[in-house]
């Protein structure tokens, strides 16, 4: 674990060289793994959840969780150093081999082009992307009203992702690739995961599971 913000940024720059933005999925995945972390207020206790979702039915087929301590301070742009260790612990608890990881956060739409989805993707070697609820650094024009409408997320002329409308008239989400997946593929999967809610079912379920487990652990 890096001992300072400067060391953490250097780790990101080093790992960034391993990000693969050229590879696309070989075939349509049958399932995805949603990842999210919940925090206990006033302490450093955290719970990570990895939830396997079947893409056709959106049924939850497996859940793994891990409870631990966040040992790195909260610094914008360095969230992965708080969340990646416990997320990796949760992933190790799955019997299912992940096909695609969906993170509640950013991929390359990040100041150093290495958000949480990139970090977890590089460390696991699994295709990954992020779906964030708010834009972090990029500029965008509000996409069209209808579900499936999108506009580019850009910074300095570089396209970092898409602002994607997942429900008619509802605020967009912000999709950016992490590792070994294309942006169009990531947006297509996101829409498949959002038939009823603004956010992907995979990360929505992971959020609910991690909150429930953390609450139970706190009370015990």
Can you give a write-up of this model?
- By secondary structure, the chain is α+β, with helices and mostly antiparallel strands.
- It has one domain (5-219): archaeoglobus fulgidus dsm 4304 fold, CATH 3.30.2170.
- It has five helices and eight strands, in the order H-E-E-E-H-E-H-E-E-E-E-H-H.
- The chain has helices at 5-16, 80-92, 116-124, 183-192, 201-219; strands at residues 31-39, 45-54, 60-69, 101-103, 128-132, 150-155, 158-164, 173-179.
- The chain has an eight-stranded mixed β-sheet, with helices on both faces.
- Strand 6 (150-155) and strand 7 (158-164) form a beta hairpin.
- Helix 2 crosses helix 3 (116-124).
- The two termini are 29 Å apart.
Topology of helices and strands:
Blueprint: H1 5-16, E1 31-39, E2 45-54, E3 60-69, H2 80-92, E4 101-103, H3 116-124, E5 128-132, E6 150-155, E7 158-164, E8 173-179, H4 183-192, H5 201-219
Helix pairs in contact: 2-3
Keywords for this entry:
220 residues; eight-stranded mixed β-sheet; alpha+beta; archaeoglobus fulgidus dsm 4304 fold; 5 helices
């Amino acid at each position: 674990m890096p001992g300072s913000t400067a060391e953490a940024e250097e780790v990101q720059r080093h790992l960034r060289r391993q990000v693969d933005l050229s590879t696309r999925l070989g075939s349509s995945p049958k399932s995805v793994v949603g990842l999210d972390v919940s925090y206990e207020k006033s302490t450093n206790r955290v719970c990570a959840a990895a939830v396997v979702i079947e893409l056709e039915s959106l049924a939850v087929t497996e859940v793994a969780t891990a409870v631990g301590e966040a040992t790195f301070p909260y610094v914008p742009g360095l969230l992965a150093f708080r969340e990646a260790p416990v997320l990796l612990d949760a992933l190790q608890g799955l019997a299912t081999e992940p096909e695609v990881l969906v993170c509640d956060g950013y991929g390359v739409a990040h100041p150093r082009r290495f958000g949480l989805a990139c970090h977890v993707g590089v460390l696991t070697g699994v295709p990954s992307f992020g779906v964030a609820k708010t834009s972090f650094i990029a500029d965008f024009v509000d996409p069209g009203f209808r579900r499936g409408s999108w506009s580019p997320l850009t910074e300095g002329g570089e396209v970092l992702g898409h602002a994607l409308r997942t429900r008619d008239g509802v605020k967009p989400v912000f999709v950016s690739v992490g590792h070994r997946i294309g942006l169009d593929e990531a947006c297509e999967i996101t829409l498949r995961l959002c038939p009823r809610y603004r956010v992907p079912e995979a990360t929505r379920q992971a959020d609910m599971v991690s909150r429930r487990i953390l609450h139970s652990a706190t009370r015990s």
